[in-house]
Specification:
InterPro entries: DUF2867, NAD(P)-bd_dom, NAD(P)-bd_dom_sf, NAD(P)-dependent_oxidoreduct. One of its GO terms (molecular function) is aldehyde dehydrogenase (NAD+) activity. It holds the Pfam family DUF2867. It contains 13 helices and 19 strands. With 474 residues, it is of the alpha/beta class. The protein has two domains: 307 residues, NAD(P)-binding Rossmann-like Domain (Rossmann fold), CATH 3.40.50.720; 156 residues, START domain (Alpha-D-Glucose-1,6-Bisphosphate, Chain A, domain 4), CATH 3.30.530. The strands form five sheets. The protein has a seven-stranded parallel sheet, sandwiched between helices. A hairpin with a 4-residue loop joins β18 and β19. α4 packs across α6 and α7 packs across α8. The longest helix has 27 residues. It is globular, with a radius of gyration of 23 Å.
Length: 474
């Protein structure tokens, strides 16, 4: 069967794709930017990659007509710009129009649990999208999930940040809200299991794990799995805005996403019982076991996808390819060269830069710059990196985005996603004669951009000179 997979660079789709291929399907992956497509399965003859932006109807002609089913895995809650409710509605409507002329016999949609009379903005948007998808005259199967637990998921990483960073937590009252977490492995099994099963057409199912817990219980059980003793004091005085700031400064989440999460966490997300797990032969994974499985993946360096890969800079939505050619005119540059004794060793260091490894020199200044960025609503250094030694185009790397990472070309190019009065690139290139070139490029925006460059120039001299010397050391 030929399956259309939307949101193919997203957290869920990257987990689902290998399963679809393993089941023998041909998969058409819809991406806005092919350079961000991470899957190693791209080399498979069963994978077709098409560039589609569901906010731009003119791109939808790239969708082939001979598809049998389609997964709708698009959401905009973490979008740095615009009203995500309107964005999601527009994308869903365009998706419906694109699918009508195809041979699709089923749409599968992953939504949120919506069993309460008062819903958050996020859950109302999910409900609205579901309604739009029903207008396609193609059988719709909706799976509604709450908190998804898995290595790299937003919920998992936020809980991990809170538990591992704070021995004592003073938390808002929404920690008493109940939810029904589900392991990512179960989510993927449900998504794959309902594919082209007529008995699931025109039906919706709440999917969740076997445990119904409050957020406070989730935090404490996470601590138990990690062997940590934690104390949580719930206070009634935290407003939603204060709660959002609390999440933003303590965890790796962005401020817009923190606001939406706090809004959603005030609503109970417990699923209605159904027999879908029995129908599909799925064994539901308890919450504690899901946490242990996630850490197994982390420790084995096998995190397939991460919520942090979502773009933080709206300008990059135009595509990474437009920024690979670093500008020359109207730019400030810090260019340094040095001979290296061991080229492979230097490349290994470059490919491990950032995250837990740090930036090799003046790490306290990098941390200070990250904190300053966070104070003005930027991503700071909190995102780290997915793997300590592997890196690919599209990866998030602290407050940078990887534009190009080629060991064969011996070149790494990063684009800044921090808050800046301009645009910034950082490039490392190892030449054939074992000369390492390190270039920081800044294209200022107006007078403030120029003032910014001169203000940080003394720090650049200290940081960049020290960094290139450390990279060159054998």
């Amino acid at each position: 069967m030929k399956i259309l997979l939307t949101g193919a660079t997203g957290y869920i789709a990257q987990r689902l794709l290998p399963i679809l291929l393993q089941d023998g399907h041909d998969v058409v992956c819809c991406v806005r930017d092919r350079l961000r497509f991470q899957a190693s399965e791209l080399a498979s003859p069963k994978v077709q990659l098409v560039e589609v932006d569901f906010l731009k109807p003119e791109t939808l002609r790239n969708i082939p007509p001979d598809i049998d089913a389609a997964y709708y895995l698009i959401h905009s809650m973490a979008s740095p710009t615009g009203d995500f409710t309107q964005l999601e509605a527009t994308a869903a409507q365009n998706f419906v129009e694109a699918l009508r002329p195809t041979g699709a016999r089923q749409i599968i949609y992953l939504s949120g649990i919506v069993n309460q009379p008062q819903l958050s903005k996020h859950l109302r948007s999910r409900q609205q999208v579901e309604h739009i998808l029903t207008t396609a005259d193609i059988p719709l199967t909706t799976l509604r999930a709450g908190i998804i637990v898995g290595s790299g998921s937003a919920s998992f990483e936020i809980i991990r940040d809170l538990v591992e960073k704070l021995p004592i937590m003073v938390a808002p009252r929404w920690l008493h809200t109940r939810c029904q977490p589900i392991a990512i492995r179960n989510v993927v099994a449900f998504l794959a299991g309902v594919l082209l099963r007529p008995e699931t057409y025109q039906a919706s199912y709440d999917i969740g794990g076997p445990d119904v817990l409050s957020y406070k219980e989730m935090l404490l059980q996470f601590a138990q799995v990690r062997g940590l003793k934690r104390t949580i004091v719930v206070v009634p005085v935290m407003t939603p805005k204060l709660s959002s700031y609390w999440l933003y400064f303590v965890t790796a989440t962005s401020y817009p996403l923190a606001c939406h999460l706090v809004d959603s966490m005030k609503v109970e997300v417990v699923g209605s019982p159904n027999k879908l797990d029995s129908l599909l032969g799925i064994d539901l994974i308890p919450y504690k076991e899901a946490i242990s499985m996630a850490f197994d993946k982390i420790e084995q360096n096998e995190v397939i996808s991460s919520w942090k890969d979502a773009l933080a800079t709206p300008v990059l939505h135009k595509g990474l390819a437009q920024y690979i050619e670093v500008p020359v005119k109207g730019c400030f540059k810090d260019h340094r060269r040095i001979k290296v004794a061991d080229g492979e060793r230097t490349l290994d260091k470059i490919w491990s830069i950032g995250g837990q490894t740090g930036w090799y020199y003046g790490n306290w200044l990098w941390a200070l710059r990250g904190l300053m960025d966070q104070m003005v609503g930027g991503v700071g250094l909190r995102r780290g990196r997915r793997s300590p030694s592997r890196i690919k185009a599209g990866d998030a790397l602290d407050f940078w985005r990887v534009l190009l990472a080629s060991r064969s070309q011996k070149r790494l190019l990063l684009y800044a996603e921090m808050k800046l009065p301009g645009e910034a690139w950082l490039e490392f290139r190892l030449l054939p004669d074992n000369t390492l070139e390190q270039t920081a490029t800044f294209r200022p925006l107006g007078i403030w951009g120029r003032l910014y460059w001169y203000a940080v120039l003394p720090f650049h001299g200290y940081i960049f000179e020290g960094m290139i010397r450390q990279l060159a050391r054998p």
